[in-house]
Amino acid sequence: MKREWGMHLGVGLLRAIGLLPYGVVRRIGSAVGELVYWLAAPRRRVTQINLARCFPHWSSRQRTTVARGHFRAFIRSFFERFIFWYAGPERIRRLCRIEGMEHFEAHRGTPMILLAPHFVGLDAGGIRLSLETDSAAIYGRQKSKVLSDVMTRGRTRFGDARMLLRNAGLRPAIKAMREGLPLMLLPDMDLGARGAVFVPFFGVPAATITSISRLAQITGAAIVPVVSSMTDGGYVVRIYPAWEGFADLDLEIAARRMNEFIEQRILEMPEQYLWSHKRFKTRPPGEAGFY
Question: Strands (DSSP E) along 109-209, which ranges?
Fold first, then answer.
């Protein structure tokens, strides 16, 4: 009970901060992120391990710079979510612009998967898109009910925005797509070996989900990548052309193609990728764990 009250107080404080001018919120978030880098030793260690595995050719100093930048960007994005979860459409449009909307419009009303990797701008981009289209997304509940409720309400304020629980399987997602709703899927979390293949991610075998390929095969959905990036003035949502012939690929080949695309985007903004997630938690049979 005390913990939930503490969460309510924390949410109230973050809502209040979100009312401040954007430049102030940005600086507060970045400063707290620098502090969290030093205080959150377990997540700092995960980040350092991930960067060392993916970029062994980088110097220790370069990896540390990216790790610190990641914490500043990630915590800043968390503070700024309370703008996107509560602000009106006008402020959201000012803070987040969309590029490549024509690639979305080319498939509007037909089965579509919006492939959205785990960059820190993910929430901002998803909410910005909800001002332009109804959609569905698959998610997992947070440990805190308070935060989970706040997050769900914030992400579903505009239009018909459906949040589908990950443990409900693929049937609700198929139903939503057949009703014409684009489905936003996050392709780069380690959810275990079931329903995954081990393919390289920066040269490291990574358990990579195959549900995107399977959904595309079942529904004929177009795969439209969507990447949200953080800038000094807010965020940019970039929508890429649909991938041709993705549903026809072998599951392993499709997973490799997907990871290669994510790698290319990471190299464009390495600090903004979710390095603090245990991306390599599941290992191939017989291989020791990293963490």
Answer: 112-115, 135-139, 161-165, 183-185, 196-201, 204-209
What's the pTM?
0.93
157: phi > 0 → left, psi -120 to 50 → alpha, else beta; which? alpha
Domain ranges (residues) in the chain: 2-272
Question: How far is 238 from 259, CA to CA, in rounded Å?
Answer: 18
CA 71, 5, 24, 118 torsion-angle sign: positive
Give the residue from 235, 270, 238 showing the smallest Cα distance to 83: 235
Say what the alpha-carbon torsion angle 63, 280, 227, 74 is, to the nearest 10 degrees.
-50
Residue 155 scores a pLDDT above 80: yes
Classify residue 197 by its DSSP letter.
E
Residue 161 vs residues 170, 223, 234, 257: alpha-carbon distances, Å = 17, 19, 23, 29
Strand 204-209 to strand 161-165: parallel, antiparallel, or no bridges (unpaired)?
Answer: unpaired
Region 185-207 average pLDDT? 94
Quick one: pLDDT at residue 3?
Answer: 67
Structure tokens at 202: 């920066």
Q: According to the model, what pLDDT value does residue 181 have?
A: 92
| CA 218 – CA 152 distance, rounded (Å) | 28
Residue linked to tokens 């080949």: 253
Question: What tokens were used for 287?
Answer: 């291989």
